[in-house]
Amino acid sequence: MKKVLLAALGVCLGVSVAGGQVEAGYYPSKPAYDYEVVNQSSNAELAPGESAILWVQLKNTGYETWYSDRFNDNKCGGQTKCGVYENPIHLGTTRGQDRSSLFFTNGNWITTNRVHQADEDMVAPGEVMHFGYMATAPTSLAGGNYREYFAPVIEGKTWMADKGLYWDILIKGEPKETYQAEVVTPNYFEYDLQAGETQEVKFAFRNTGNATWYNGGQGAIHLATVNPKDNYSDLYFDSWMAPNRPAYMEEQVVRPGEIGHFAMVAQTPDEPIHGVGGNRYYDEYWLVAEGVTWFDYYWGYTEPARLAINVPVDDDYEPMFDPDNSFINLYPESGVSANGADEAVLEIVLRDQRNNPIANTKVRFHEQSCLSLIIEGDECAWDQYEYGVTDSEGVFQKYITKDEQQLVKYRYYYDGMVGGESNQIFFY
């Protein structure tokens, strides 16, 4: 009996036992990664299209430290391991594991099966980590109670036990009409043409919303130019309804789950501006219910229909910045919470007169923020300038957080010109 008792004490105290030395403070019977729920927010009641902020506090009851995305974003919490990547902890969907949640919120969640990142950079054993996220009820969701289960996961290493962490989300009211789609043909086509030549292109979209599509009357479904919305295309052909409407829907009616087809003809300009090695014309398209709404579009998750056409020309031309092809975005348009944790994304896209990216180039921008929540002219001062550098695709992105309610928008400058202003976003 004494030998058995001493052996058990040796496991806990870090003394020699049969099989070798056990490191002090190491508990073989204790999981490396484990947790307990300390506290969590109440369940939610939502109407279709509404959102609620939910949160949970998890205590680290294992013997390994937890690291969040913030630690890996070169912030490192002031630790000596700054710059060393650690497998981050996330709160992921369970039952079934890694399923896409109905209540995913674009711009707030990491992916459709991972809620917003944790608040802390790192949490040692015995400490508490906080997860807060926004749950948004789809506008098409039928009334009823929906139970959403989650568990922590160390990405690339292991899931922690499913201990029944959940929220009940009660949906009240009737679902709203939604216009949603996904491209079912290849969403990208590229052709090599001569100046003035034409090319027929066909796209097909599945109706993934709950609204029925019609090709005529109020709410007629058309293929439209996007990024930016309604821009006039250089590939306009006289079969188009307008320079920003390349095609109408071929079917008279497309019900939810069915597929609608759009055939368009693109034509390169007769006298293109010479580009280095050739001209590249690039368009992006999405669907619009005319006079009703643009189809839902989620940055980073929705793939638009895309068309690129290359025209060979002389090599004696240097690209010039074109503000009509360039644009600035600030999203998500629905806004983000002003808790210092949620992020908005500023995106500046620089293109030349042939819609080619202006890559690896410095761009100047500055912010206008209004604590009064009203932006009228220059009532709210513009902050000092900042600078960024575009990537190989001519895109510069900046992530923005705020710790108090306000409206913000941005203006950018390039080559001595005011390139444009973004939409405004509410930090609530």
CATH architecture of the largest domain: Sandwich
How many helical stretches? 2
Q: Termini separation (Å)?
A: 64 Å
Q: What is the fold-level CATH name, i.e. the topology of the largest domain? A: Immunoglobulin-like
- As for the number of domains, it is 3
Apparent shape: globular
List how many beta strands DSSP finds: 31
Largest sheet: 6 strands, mixed
Low-confidence stretches: 1-24, 76-80, 373-378
Bin the helical content. Answer: under 10%
SSE class: mainly beta
Average pLDDT over all residues:
84
Provide the gyration radius in Å. Answer: 27 Å
Percent of residues in beta strands: 35-45%
CATH class of the largest domain: Mainly Beta
The CATH superfamily of the largest domain is identified as: Immunoglobulins
Written description of the protein model:
The chain is mainly β and 428 residues long. The chain folds into three domains: 31-171, Immunoglobulin-like (Sandwich); 181-311, Immunoglobulins (Immunoglobulin-like); 327-427, Sandwich (Immunoglobulin-like). Helices cover 4% and strands 39% of the residues. The longest helix has 12 residues, at 2-13. The termini are far apart.
